[in-house]
Amino acid sequence: GESVGLHLPTLSVQEGDNSIINCAYSNSASDYFIWYKQESGKGPQFIIDIRSNMDKRQGQRVTVLLNKTVKHLSLQIAATQPGDSAVYFCAESLDTGRRALTFGSGTRLQVQP
Amino acid sequence: DAGVIQSPRHEVTEMGQEVTLRCKPISGHNSLFWYRQTMMRGLELLIYFNNNVPIDDSGMPEDRFSAKMPNASFSTLKIQPSEPRDSAVYFCASSLLTGAFFGQGTRLTVV
Fold first, then answer.
1. By C-alpha distance, which of A79, A81, A93, A82 is closest to A36?
2. CB contact A46 to B (< 8 Å)
3. A100, B33: Cβ pair inside 8 Å?
């Protein structure tokens, strides 16, 4: 029979709108966080990272916000484009690159033209 | 840099056969990770190495799985014997001071 997989939450936005993808992380001791983008058939692609001594970091069209009090991370994408359609994962770690990342279950972003 | 290189991209094998997945990390990176991705369980860490030394292999499912890193530019993940439940996409990733960079993965199908 057909196996039941993870049910990914889906965010559907119109092209040109801003997108906000949220993530609740699990370990209050985590001090490093990353957002990854995964397109179908490809490996996760590093988008932006943030360390726990910061609460905001901006990249090109993307901004990551960190709220350590409630263990919440968000990714904001400005002027969303069809090429942004993918699954987005947040990941947390205890020590930048030297320890392994723990991944969230992901959010699917669908951009409507 | 070509990024993390994995081979093969696709592997179909019969149950009971040995499977070897290969990874070449980004030059200069000193941490290497093996992850497995399935619909049921998402992305799971299997094992990771720092400076070629295995640090945490608690994610390796059972003794049928083994991983080696003989030098800084090469790692293997071996499954012997393979079983249908091992079917998944296996990713290798490497890092230095920031987050890990992933390869394109090996899609393994065990029939």
1. A93
2. yes
3. yes
Q: Which of these, B38, B40, B6, B21, lies nearest to B78 by C-alpha position?
A: B21
What are the beta bridge partners of residue A87?
A38, A108
Residue of A37, A101, A107 to mutate, interface with B, max B Cβ within 10 Å: A101
At B40 the three-state DSSP class reads coil
Q: What are phi and psi of B89, to 5 degrees?
A: -105, 125
Q: What is the pLDDT of residues B43-97, one digit of tens each?
A: 999 999 999 999 989 999 889 999 999 999 999 999 999 999 999 999 999 998 8
- B23 contacts on A by Cβ (under 8 Å): none
Closest Cα in chain B, distance from residue A73 (Å): 16
Residue B97 amino acid letter: L
Single-letter amino acid code for the residue at A1: G
